[in-house]
Amino acid sequence: MEAILVIGLLIGLILGGLWVHIAVGISALFYIVMLQGFNGLKSLGLVSWGAADSYTLSAIPLFVLMAEILLCSGLSSRLFTGLAPIVGRLPGGLFHTNVIGCGIFAAVSGGSASTAAAIGTVALPELGRLGYNKRLAAGSLAAGGTLGILIPPSITMIVYATFTETSIPKLFMAGVLPGILLIGLYLSYIFIRVKINPGLAPSRETLENKGLISSLLNVFPFVLLIGVVMGSIYGGIATPTEAGAIGAVGAMIIAGVFRSINVGVVQKSLHRTLVMSGNILFIVFVSMLFAYATALSGFGETLAVWLKEAGLSKIEFLLAALVFYAVLGCFMEGLGMIAITVPIIYPTLAAYGIDPIWFGIYMVILVELGQLTPPLGVILFVVASTWRKLKIEDVVLGTLPFFILIVLLIFILIGFPELALWLPNKMLS
User: Is the confidence at residue 252, as pLDDT, over 80?
Assistant: First the structure.
């Protein structure tokens, strides 16, 4: 009964317009007082220290800094410029550049909003100038932006690993193949759509040919940085936190080589990193308090028993989670979705024999879906803000086919769990 009241309070506060992390913090304190009285608040010192004293979480500001240096120095625009002549010759032209550019930037950013913003600010005005269909342009960019949390390194995966004590390198590896498959689904849809209706994209001759070598030189630094960061993790050379530091230094070196860095860029990057990291870590911190209250009440274990007694099968449980997160994405940001719900849902995994690594990828994809759910999917508004000629309804309508493709990936992942587990198991062995 207490859990239902607290969840109702949490939803009410969020719908009332209160920031998610404040709403979670108030609900957590209310929950603890309900369970143990005001004496229960005495334990918050130890709980708070346990939440903050995490080596795993120290990777987050480092990966954020790496992405911000690339973004503030203008190197993200070089990625689009380099990819355009290479993939722009395919049916669909620069629509493919949106998806592939987001996929590459995702591997150095760790977040969806930053990925969509980095590529969108350069891509959408250019696509509009060349006469591309703005709905498909916006949809491909919004869908590509969600790759930021699926393709490693992923801040969302780090947060999930913090709550579940699972291996970050395993989670990173588990996201690779689903991420590549999702990119393939996006590109295939664009290819078929433009083949059926060539008017969606201009003739390929209108695209500038800057030369293959020049294009590759613009893309190569990103590929090199991805190889160094992820290679150091998978090769056992560095922990994810150390790899984040390597990536941040590497981003500064690359910006220096291209003469795109100065004191102003460094200051702006550090400022944006502090703001974003503070927001992320505060959400994690208050969610740890909520997780502590949930553990005190035993609600997670009670939920697992109730689901089994209700006769809910594994597939039904996963499909229920699909609907739940799609709806939750209407009014909650992705990290909040993970941080609040994982402590409640995680105890049920053992009852259904679900692998925590596989479920981590499943949840990340569900969060991707939530970020595209109208009317309040966060990526929809990020994309709409990158080009003044774009209306939010254009983004929503352009995103719907890609929304369906993410649902298709979810069904594939349920039917073939090895899609996520094969690579971690292979590399581990």
Answer: yes
